[in-house]
Amino acid sequence: MKIAILGAGLMGAALGRSWAAAGHHITFAYSRSAAKLDRLARETNGAAGSVREALRDADAVLLSVHWSRIEDVLDQAGPLADQIILNCCVPLNLSNDRLLFGPTTSGAEHLATLRPLARWVSCFNTIPSESFAPVRHQRPEPRPQVLMYGDDPGAKMVAAGLINDAGFDPLEAGGLRTGRYVEPFAMVTAVLAYGQPGGPALTYRFTKL
Ligand SMILES: NC(=O)c1ccc[n+]([C@@H]2O[C@H](COP(=O)([O-])OP(=O)(O)OC[C@H]3O[C@@H](n4cnc5c(N)ncnc54)[C@H](OP(=O)(O)O)[C@@H]3O)[C@@H](O)[C@H]2O)c1
């Protein structure tokens, strides 16, 4: 599958490496450093380019920018009609200590209003970037889960495949409005990953008894 990664930071780089290891072709875009995009492209046998170049022929897109960059990256991306977009962004303020949406709406729903023709799926927003390499290398069993939610069943099927390819099980969690609850939960995962001993490579798995 051809995957465009918009935002080559911690999340974009980590997921790009996991998906490249699973055989996907990655095009990295949207960084202030062209050298960084080139380095990631070389490392993953992929490509680097502008946002528009990355979107050309992409079967799926990962949106992985800081929330403050959403408007800019969407401007560069255009209407994104029919494009499957996996959104891992948490709608945080500049100091990363306050959610900008909720509790009666969410970043996920806001994105869908900004680009209503795109096929949005939210996932990976509850997984610290440091978890992807250990999951890729250690292949823990049972596999950790990733909460996944959206209003487009076909887009969710594609996202579920990509979640599997990164070494996780998709956990179907309903429509985009689930973002109202998941985005605060993402903050909990950050507290557990970065605020407690043991390192940030945190995963989770829910069990119904
Ligand atoms: N990190 C995590 O563990 C984690 C976990 C779950 C969800 N998330 C969410 O995932 C998204 C990405 O997180 P991240 O940690 O990967 O972020 P990051 O490392 O800061 O990377 C964000 C990307 O946006 C670009 N960017 C930032 N400021 C920019 C600016 N002023 N102009 C142009 N480009 C700019 C960065 O460019 P440069 O390459 O130039 O820096 C980078 O490519 C965020 O919404 C975050 O809330 C993160």
Structure characterization notes:
It is a single chain. This protein is α/β, with parallel strands linked by helices and 209 residues long. The protein has one domain (2-194): Rossmann fold (3-Layer(aba) Sandwich). Helices cover 38% and strands 16% of the residues. It contains eight helices and eight strands. It has helices at residues 10-21, 34-43, 51-55, 70-77, 107-114, 132-138, 153-165, 179-194; strands at residues 2-6, 25-29, 47-48, 60-63, 84-87, 119-123, 145-149, 169-172. An eight-stranded mixed sheet has the order 3-2-1-4-5-6-7-8, with helices on both faces. It is globular and about 45 Å long. The N and C termini lie far apart (36 Å). The model has no long low-confidence stretch (mean pLDDT 98). It binds NADP nicotinamide-adenine-dinucleotide phosphate.
